[in-house]
Amino acid sequence: MDVYDSDDFPVYRWRQAPKGLDTMRQLRERRLRPGGQEPVAAIECRGGKRKAWLYEIDKTLPIRPMTFAKEVALDWAMAQRQTCPSCSRRYHRCLPLKTLGSCLECYDGTPADPDSYTYPPAAPAASRQAPLYAAAV
After folding, report:
1. Closest among 91, 69, 68 to 80, alpha carbons compared
2. β-pair partners for 118
3. How much is the pTM?
4. Which region holds residue 97: left if phi is over 0, alpha if psi is between -120 and 50, else beta?
């Protein structure tokens, strides 16, 4: 038996939900999360074609803070989507890698605005010190 399809589960129309209930997006705006609670109601929009779950605000918890490790992991994931495999430029937007496989400049020669990407990291410079064996000569 599906609890969300029963008559006991309230479904409200758009903008008709009572105070004290918020959707996931509204919770995120308040920097809150459901904290393991199940939805207590739903809200219908677009003539019943879409639903959004409603959660009690009193039972929510604050969102977890961003840690440095999580930030590094997210930056690495975005770098995979924003870096062209051909020219190694990192763009400020996601590239169509699934369809084109590279940036537009590498794909068909369309020039890219220099402000829309960062240059690839430079190769490490050769050591400017004299070789160790030169001191012995």
Report:
1. 91
2. 90
3. 0.57
4. alpha
